[in-house]
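## tool: complex_structure
## caller: assistant
## args:
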Amino acid sequence: MAENAPANALPASLLEAVGLTKRFGALVANDHVSLAIRAGETHALLGENGAGKSTLVKMMCGLLQPDSGELLYDGAPIVFPDPATSRARGVGVVFQHFALFDALTVVENVALGLAGHEPLATLAARIEDCVHRYGLSVEPYRRVGELSVGERQRVEIVRCLLGDPRVLILDEPTSVLTPDESESLFRTVDLLTGEGRAVLFISHKLDEVRRLCHRATVLRGGKFIAEVDPKTETASSLARLMVGAEVPRTPRTVTHQLGEPRLLVNKLNVAGDGSRGSALHDINLEIRAGEIVGIAGVAGNGQTTLFEALSGEKPVADQEAIIIDKVAAGGLGPTERRALKAGFVPEERLGHAAAPDMRLSDNVLLTTHGDGAIVRLGIIHRSALLARFQEIVRRFDVRFGGKDPKARRLSGGNLQKFVIGREVLREPVLIVVDQPTWGVDAAAAAFIRTTLREKAAEGCAVLVISQDLDELLEFTDRIAVMSEGRLTAPVPVAETSREAIGLAMGGAETGGAQTGGAHASGEGAHAA
Amino acid sequence: MPLRLERQENVSGLRLALAPLLALVFTLIVGAVMFVALGHDPIRAFGIYFVGPLLDTYTLQELVVKAGPLLMIGTGLAFCYRANRWNIGAEGQYVAGAVVGSWLALVTHGTDAGPWVLPAMLVMGALGGALWGLIPAFLRVRFGSSEILTSLMLVYVAQLGLDYLVRGPWKDPDGFNFPQSVTFDANAVMPLLMDEGRLHGGIILALVAVVVATFVLGRTLVGYSIELGGSAPRAAAFAGFDERRVTYGVFAVSGALAGLAGIIEVAGPIGNLQPSISPGYGFTAIIAAMLGRLHPVGIVVASLVLALTYIGGEAAQISMRLPFDVTRVFQGTLLIAILAADVMVRYRVRRVEGTSHA
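## result:
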C-alpha cells in the first residue's frame, strides 16, 4: 500500500521506488511496493522466492516498466526505458546469472559491455585499478572459462564499477560463493558504501543481512511488509517477517539403526568434457539405509557430473564403480537404475526434472514409466496416472491454479514438492537429490527436508548435494565436501564445523578429516 | 521505436485452436489481392477454387484421392515434428518408396505372379521410404549434421535417381521413347473403391495410419517419449529415453509413411513410373502437419483443405487460364500465415518506448 512508503524525511534518498505495481496477467508481482536507498548505505531487500524481489529490481533498472507508481532519482521522478539508460545514469546491477562469454578474456568481456572503442590495454589498466581499489582480485587477461563462479561474479562487479555507479544492486550475490569468498565480497561492499555509493543487497540469508546491511526492506507475496534495522532484529524475527509465520525446524532424530549400504561409489572417475572442470577423480562414498549424507561445495566443482553419473544419464564404463542396493550399476541407464528402486531429483526443475510445457500429470510419467503400475505393455493407463498424480498433489500439498497446468506455471516450491513427491511415492531405497531447496520458499524447504528425514527414518538412504551449507548442517547426518572434482570423506555433522567445511570448499588440503570445530553450528538461516 | 516479442505464459486452448482458422482467413485475403492484381474477379476465382470442387461427385472423389497422400505423409511428419526433428525430405522418401515398390511391379510384369504382388509392393515402398528417411537420421546422430538440410538435399537425389531410371533402365521399350515405365499389371495396382472415378484403396490405408498414429502418439509410452524428447530433451534423457533411438524411430516412421504414399500413388492413380509422380505432396504435407497442429485428426482436416487448393487450382488452370503456380502461392502463404499466427498467439508484440542504444 502507498501509505506504507518509508518515511521520506531523510534527504539523502538516492534511488527511491514509490508505490510500484506490476501485474503479470492475474498475478500481482508487486503491489504498491516502496523502497528508498540512501547514499552510503547497504540496503537489504529480503523476501522469499516469489516475494517479488526480482520484479522490483527489474523495474528499478529499466528491465521492466511498472504499471503504476514511480521511481525517484535524487528526489526527481525518472523513467528508465531500458537497462542501458539506468546504467548510464549510475545504477548498476549484478544479476545472479552472469552474462559472460567463456571463450573471451576478462578484459574482452568487459569491453563488449562498453560503448565506444577503448583500447584493450587501457581498459585492462582501468580494471587493474578498480581491482586494487576494491580488493576484488581479478586478472584481466585470463579467459572467463577458466574462472570459478566467485571470480566470474567479481568480473561482473568490476564491469559495473567501471561505469562509476552511484547505486549498485547485487542480486543474491552470496548464493554462489564459499564462506571465504562471501567475506571478501562484504569487504568490497563496505568500501563501496564508504565512498558514498549505495548498495542494494538482495538475499534471503538472514545472518549475512544482519551483519552487513544498515536497513532492510522486507517483501512478502508482492507486498511491502516492513522496513527494519536488521542489526536490531533477530534472525527469527526477520524470518517471521519474510514468511509471515514461524518456520518449523527440521527435527533431527536419529533414533533408527543404520542398515545395509544402499549406495556404494568405488573409485568413480569421469573425464571432463573439456572447458569446464567437471571431471571426477576417485570418488568414494558409502551411504547406508537410514542415513542422510550431504555433499557440500561451490557450484561447478563436479556436482552435476556426479549427479549424472549416479542417475545413469551419463553411465560410466566401470560397472562396479556404482553399486545400488548390491547391484553393480555403473553402466546402467536411468530406467534400469530406477528399477533398482533408486530415485533421483536433479537441480534444474524446469527442463531437467520436469518438461516445462507438458502438463503436470504427464510429468508424473517421467520417472514412473518403468514401475509397471502406470505403463503396461507400452500403453499408458491414464486413470492410474491421474490417480498417482492426485496422490502426489494431495500428500505433498502441491498447489497450483487450474486442474492440470503445465509444469512451467507452478512456483518453484510447489514444483519441487511435486518432483520430490513423485520420487518418494515410488518407494525408493535410495534417493539422490541435487539442491533440494534451491529457490524454494522456507515453508516448502522445511517440508522437503522433513520428508527426506522421514524417508531416511523408514530405511531409505538419502544423498543430498547442496550449496546451502546451513541446510546440510541442519538435516544431514554426515557431510562430505566436493572441490575440483574430488570428494572428501564424509564426516559426522556433530564432529565438524562451518569453518572446516568452508576451508574444504575452498579446496584447502584438509583430507576431509577436519574434526576440530568446537561447535557444530546447526543454526540455520531461517531460525535461531 | 523497436518492437519486442514477449512470451505469453497463459495461452488459452481456444486461441491456439483459432490460430489456423485465422491463418486461413489471412490467406484468402492475400489470395483476393493476388486475383485482383492478375486482373480477375476475386469472387469468381474463389468460387472456382474453393466452392466448385465441392459441388461435383467426381471432384469430391478427386479431393479424397489428393488428400490421401497428404494425410498419410503429414501423419508421419507429426512423429518427427513432435520430437523436434525437422524432416523436410518427405518428398524424397515418397519418391524412394515409389521406386523401390515399383521395382517389384516391373520385375513381375507380364508373369501373372499372383495377388501377393501389390501387398509386397506396399511393404517394399514403406521400407524404401524408411531407409531413405534413416539417412538424415543417421547423419544427425552420428555427425550432428542438420537433418533439415540433409533430408531436403536427399529429395533431389531421389528425384534425379527416379529420372535416370525412367529414362534409362526402366524405360518402357514400347513406349515411343517417352520417359516412363511399362503400365503396371492388374495385380500391381490399387483396387478402386467405386465403379466410376479414381477413388482407390489408398485412402483406407491412410485412415488406418491416422487411427494407429492417434493411438501411438496419444496413449503409448512411445508417443510420450517422442513428445518429451521434443519438448524437453534433457528431461527425456533423465527419464531414460534414448535420444538416438527416438531420432531413428521418428524418421523411420515418417519415411515409411511417405514411401507408402509414394508407392500407393504410383500403383493407384498414375499406374506406372514417370519422372514426375508428385505435385509436391511431400512438401505440402509439411503444411498439412503444421496446419493440423501435429495431431492426426487435425491433419486429416488440413489435408482436405489443401487438397481443395490442388483441385481448385486445376479447375482455375482450365477455366481462368491461371498458372498452377497460383496454387503453390496459396499453399506457401498458408504455411507462412500459420507460422505467423502461432507466434502471434504464443507471443505478444510490445513496443519498447524510447531509444535503445547499443
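## assistant note: The longest helix of chain B spans residues 243-270. Confidence is low (pLDDT under 50) at residues 354-358 of chain B. Handing back to user.
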